[in-house]
């Protein structure tokens, strides 16, 4: 078995190392680089406008990284009179370690639907929610939060920028290496992967087993023509590794 890891940040490299230590051949092909978002400089002013009891929702570790650095550089401290949320446990732990604040997350369902099911998210009248995320992203949470009475503000803390490769050459390398499993952690990566791989190699691509992290991504993959799709219960590298090993 050979595995293609498409995760963009340092976690992609870490996952490759974990797979190699487990005796599995793995190739890291990050399709995006992570760069500062176009709205990151607006964060200090929007943060200052929050009133006591308002919410901050960080969608990912990358959003936390850029937000923490930006507020630090501008002399702001993370306020204890705000409520902090993330999608998943690992991002929550990281956010807490960087801010010293209590971070809430939906431990049973680590996605936007899970966040929306939290008791604190049911009645949002008079609440302002500042969402820290990358470019693009799902609109479900901001839409539903607005419907429930919240004033929603979004800051693009980082952006995913496509990495330039020789597409045909990279696809050929993966095929020659015997890649038969691909790890994809977002709809954006999956969609770009379909565009990245030449049409002549799509039969090979769709015959690969797909390891992913949500039913939403699985539905997109089914639409694109994948048949063999396995969902990891969580998005962290250890869970992805265990899912892969258990699905062999």
UniProtKB/TrEMBL annotation:
Signal peptide range: none
EC class (word): lyase
Metabolic or biological pathway: Porphyrin-containing compound metabolism; protoporphyrin-IX biosynthesis; coproporphyrinogen-III from 5-aminolevulinate: step 3/4
EC number: 4.2.1.75
Domain Tetrapyrrole biosynthesis uroporphyrinogen III synthase: residue ranges: 15-242
Keywords: Lyase, Porphyrin biosynthesis
Pfam families with a match to the protein in the record: HEM4
Catalyses which reaction(s): hydroxymethylbilane = uroporphyrinogen III + H2O
Gene3D superfamilies linked: 3.40.50.10090
Source species, domain of life: Bacteria
SUPFAM superfamilies: HemD-like
Biological role: Catalyzes cyclization of the linear tetrapyrrole, hydroxymethylbilane, to the macrocyclic uroporphyrinogen III.
Family of this protein: Belongs to the uroporphyrinogen-III synthase family.
Record's protein name: Uroporphyrinogen-III synthase
Organism: Seminibacterium arietis
